[in-house]
Amino acid sequence: MTSRRLAMVSAGISVPSSTRLLADRLTAATVSALRERGVDTEVDVIELRDHGHTMVDNVLTGFPGRALRTALDAVTGADGLIAVTPIFSASYNGLFKLFFDVLEPESLAGKPTLIAATGGTGRHSLALEHAVRPLFAYLRGMVVPTSVFAAPEDWGGGDRATQALDQRIARAAGELADLVVARPTQQAADPFLEPTPFEQLLNGS
Amino acid sequence: MQLGIFSVGDVTPDPTNGRTPTEAERIKAMVAIAVKAEEVGLDVFATGEHHNPPFVPSSPTTMLGFIAARTERLQLSTATTLITTNDPVKIAEDYAMLQHLADGRVDLMMGRGNTGPVYPWFGQDIRNGIALAVENYALLRRLWREDVVDWQGKLRTPLQSFTSTPRPLDGVPPFVWHASIRSAEIAEQAAFYGDGFFHNNIFWNKEHVQRMVELYRRRFEHYGHGAADQAIVGLGGQVFMRKNSQDAVREFRPYFDNAPVYGHGPSLEEFTDLTALTVGSPQQVIEKTLSFREMAGDYQRQLFLMDHAGLPLKTVLEQLDILGEEVVPVLRREFAALKPAHVPEAPTHASLLEAAGADEEEVAA
Q1: Residues 47-76 of A with CB under 8 A from B
Q2: What's domain B2-364's superfamily in CATH?
Q3: What is the value of ipTM here, to two decimals?
Q4: CA atoms of A168 and B127, how far apart (whole Å)
Q5: Inter-chain contact B274–A56, Cβ cutoff 8 Å?
Q6: I need a labelling partner for B247 at 20 to 30 A (CA). Which of B37, B136, B194, B223 fits?
Q7: Which domains does chain A have, with CATH numbers?
């Protein structure tokens, strides 16, 4: 069996949070979809709440503290990303944006990514399409077509609602697994190990 | 080991009383600080270069020329010279002139600058930052080393039959350091030429500083300038001292908390843990500074940032007294005792002149 690394980023605020609950469901479904495709998965879980202060510090000083560095490296080195945010004021919340602001540019280029969100009512669901998806388009992540939104009624609105959520989760996880399997294992390029030779810089490339 | 100070030249309100020095006061304070540095036995004074408020040092050679006239042995340097937005022709001329006036007590530290609008203000494009640093410096080297230069590049008007004047003192260009906080390309550039590499060490975590220095050392050896441990490394540092470390923390905290760059971010304690900042007793400063050697290997130049964030001149001069009396003598002794014989000192005009003479004899023989 080959293996891959997934990073799960949750920007939920409360403890426990429905955002984390959704993130866990998506992660479990993706791990299971990957297993069906013959791939073992290791998962790094990143709760952004734990890095709240240090993300602000990073924005102000330009460099991450140690624990945040570890979290950023986990995302950069992952073969796939599951990013889940609560919807605040028609968009991702501040914690979520801070994290992707301090991540090195290019870190998500081509990275298979599943986006998902939670919100107080189903009326927020398109925030995934008009706010979260464009953010990852800018970062050049490879975002799967199915995004997953969970409103309160999805957690207990009777069989039809829960089935619909289950189906969306399974479909999104399957799409993410297909992309992850199709790409070779990620090895983040390290400019400090292999710098561009100076002759090349002199020649303007 | 060269021990000295570097100044950003910021005009910042003193957070303890709200008082902001005038530009005139700040400029004269920088001079007083440089003169004091020589008086207390430090080796180097380096000034920043900035082209926007709240910074005063836009014209480094004017300031360093003035300081040269008031000092005898202080090495005059920059932190940094903007190799991206200055015309390399003007850098060649200004610093050769300064070399003559200062009897060779001059070196430069090249940097790209970190203020975005400076590029367009000087007719450049920030997206060319690395390319400008590479091309401009390649031209600068030729201007100092060849009497007549024909040159064509991509980012500046071509030159035909150009002679930069005055020629470098004794035909020996000033030693150059290249400074970068995070760009591997600049460490590579320093290594390629066998120039010095400086890491400011105060705005970035030490694990990262270590990687940058390691890269520079490895590539210095790769390009045939000597063994990795013979590469020329400089580091920044930032200290505030009182006899009693709690007093130092209490007095410095408002300056730290409101400082440009990192103010209102991490706590003083967190920043001390992550970076080179030391706020405490002279003994703590000695220990932390010696630990840089464990991080970066035997190195040649240590510059401290002493005069920023609104600290009053009187306090800065007191700090320099403590540095000169209690820290520098111990650091000199300890660094000298630890340094293996094959690790060179930082190049100076005298050592470069001697090396040039030796090269000529070799050619003649």
Answers
A1: 54, 56-57, 60-66, 69
A2: Luciferase-like domain (3.20.20.30)
A3: 0.84
A4: 42
A5: no
A6: B37
A7: 2-202 (3.40.50.360)
